[in-house]
Amino acid sequence: MTSVLVATGLSKRYGATQALEDVGFELRAGEVHGLCGENGAGKSTLVKILGGYVVPDSGQIVVAGEPVKLGHRPDPSLISIVHQELSIVPHLSVLDNVMMGAPEVGALYLRSRFRTAVRGHLDAVGLAHVDVDRLASTLSLAEQQLVEIARGIGRGARVLLLDEPTATLSDAEIANVFKVLRSLKSEGATIVIISHRLDEIFALTDRVTVFRSGRHVFTRDTCELDAPELVRAMIGRDVVRGGMHATTAERQPVTRLQARDWTLSGEFGPFNLSFGARETVAVVGQLGSGADSFLESLAGLHPTTRGSLTIDGQALRLRGIKDAYRAGIAYVAEDRAGKGVFLDAAIEVNITSQILDRVSPRGLISRSAAHERALTLAQEFQIDPRRLPHDVSTLSGGNQQKVSLAKAAALGPRLLLLNEPTRGVDVGARSEIYGRLHAMTQQGMTIVFYSTDLEEVMEVADRVITIYRGGLVSDRPRAAITADDVLHDILHGPEKEAA
Questions:
Q1: Which long-range contacts (CB under 8 A, 24 or more apart) does 478-487 make?
Q2: How many domains does the chain fold into?
Q3: Which tens digit of pLDDT belongs to each residue from 85-105?
Q4: 53 and 146 together in one domain
Q5: Is residue 244 part of a domain?
Q6: pLDDT per residue over 185-214, tens digit each?
């Protein structure tokens, strides 16, 4: 089969960190190629080199038989990249964002010429409900991700690279993206997909390349691999799974949070739900179902929510997130880079940023007290304590998420709310995060999380609450529900509505 892209001898060092070391990478025409590895393995560095954003210390790249000038953006008709971190411009329309950087957009930008094509790209990725003139700032994170994908497929490039394209998407939305990618493949496009969701790798790809610690481990046909073998290649060891669920004897029947007639107009409700101490509850629903809005409302992010809440038997009024903090409720947002951490601040500063009053006797910050608290939390979340003075931006995505979680845990909350707790996090870091979450519930904390990753839901939750079009479909113990049951609930709603 013809090679459409060949990279040889690529190396890149950042100070003491060897991001890539003598890496080779080859793509065949018309294949879907999976690129796997832990956060920090070198995958994103490779993508940035291929996109001309980073100049390697050595190596060369040949596309369609022609050498690529390193450090220069390739012709969009040859290589198009959808990056993990969104590049949406909030104050521009959806149409403008899809067309941004397109070679056919000249000095005279006539939007009417592109409306039909953009409409087709949006429909293809599951955004038929989004008007092309709508401001991008009004879209959810998942909708913005789909706009990025629509922009990528609209370039018609010979090689399309997708870095964690489905991290914020539900299974139904992922199915739409897969349908588009398979169609592009049938038309001769070559697609690279970076994903930590191994089910996606096995469902979509023809071959898989694994990186570990900046080195090429292997490239093999996907059909020759199984999940345990792929994980071992990625992290160099087996991952111990399970152990997240408490036994019935371990669980406490004490009610931590109770919601009565909890309603957000146009989003969800009324809901009558309760959450117990030492319990981990998953809230699941499609984009626009109200599931994530429900979680946000418990964090005080929707002060117009009606109904009543009690926490440990005491009435709770949420006029904003400060009320939630005072009540012992912490929230971790889905967008860690935009909402979860301060990228250009030290790890130690991030972890202690919400507890300054606790490390500031007489109004002055005690550096020793702040450092001691940050050190304890870093060790609990398996963050290298030696890196506490470093900016969060220097960390991999998985470690950035650990910082975001440690920052919330620093509050010592009674209720911890997690929106997409492991979005874009590799299997090794996920295992470590799950272990820490389990330890916190064993210490008495209640965890409620929203996730579009059904494998995560089934592994982590004690209970699963499903939501469809703002209504509660089911609230069942995880042991009494399957992933297929969850998928049916969020796609079709109650049986009477499905009929």
A1: 478/245, 478/282, 482/458, 483/454, 483/455, 483/457, 483/458, 486/284, 486/454, 486/457, 486/458, 487/171, 487/454
A2: 2
A3: 778 899 999 999 999 888 788
A4: yes
A5: no
A6: 888 889 999 887 788 899 999 999 999 889
